[in-house]
Amino acid sequence: MSGLTALRTYAQTNPAKIPASILFSHTSTSLTIYDAFPKGIFHFLVLPRVQEPFTVSELSDLRTLLSGDKARAKQVISALNEDAKALRKEIEEEMLARYGFKWNVWTGFHAVPSMAHLHLHVLSDDLLSEKFKHKKHYNSFHPKLGFFLDVDEVLSWFEAEDSYYTAMAKLDTKHYESMLKEDLSCWRCNASMKTIPALKAHLQEEWDTQAKREKAKIERRRKMEEKGGDAATTE
Ligand SMILES: [Zn+2]
Ligand SMILES: [Zn+2]
């Protein structure tokens, strides 16, 4: 199966027939699959299943969806967002069980997708992964560059003036792709990075620091609760 159209195929497949190594879960309207090239410790894709009245071409990507009926587009994105919220809860439980603390999970679309069929990226913000090797991969998730469109931002377009919606819905490829060429920088502290290996080492340090801080917080809370003090509830 071609990597570029795999999502489109899954979206039209009975979930029971999709291998468990690929499919994480499904609902009546969506599939959640493991990203084949995870860019964070946790990285999933939530995609709409192709079902009446929606068509394959309408669900091709964010641009095709937004260029069609506005109410239908909002319905699709809101449903994906609800399923992503439930997924984030599961990820957080897994973070606590496996790592002893939880950290942020991003939910958004790429302005210009690399695979056919609409999909919402749900990934942990550590960005620690063997799979990211190129600047454009990193920049496509960098939350301050604009290529990664948070789902809440996209949903806010529906509430804005029509002219604003129309402008945003264009999702001009050239405009967005230029963002991928920006110099490497840490999305947390803005420090500029010369190479991908340097960036990865820095992101590892950032995450280790966060892990230490969060675990210390949990430990402090636990100790206070042991003492029976109600100070623990004031944080
Ligand atoms: Zn993507
Ligand atoms: Zn940094």
TrEMBL record:
Protein name per Swiss-Prot or TrEMBL: HIT-like domain-containing protein
Is Oxidoreductase one of the keywords UniProt gives this record? no
Keyword annotations from UniProtKB, A to Z? Coiled coil
Quote the Gene3D superfamilies the UniProt record gives. HIT-like
GO terms for CC?
Answer: nucleus
* GO aspect biological process, one term: single strand break repair
Region spans: Disordered? 209-235
The residue range of the signal peptide is none
Q: Which Pfam families match?
A: DcpS_C, zf-C2HE
Q: Which InterPro entries match?
A: HIT-like_sf, Znf-C2HE
Aprataxin C2HE/C2H2/C2HC zinc finger domain mapped to chain residues: 145-208
**What ranges does the record list as Basic and acidic residues composition bias?**
209-229
Instruction: Drop me one GO molecular function for this one.
Output: mismatched DNA binding
* Record has Coiled coil as a keyword: yes
Q: Which residues form a coiled coil?
A: 70-97
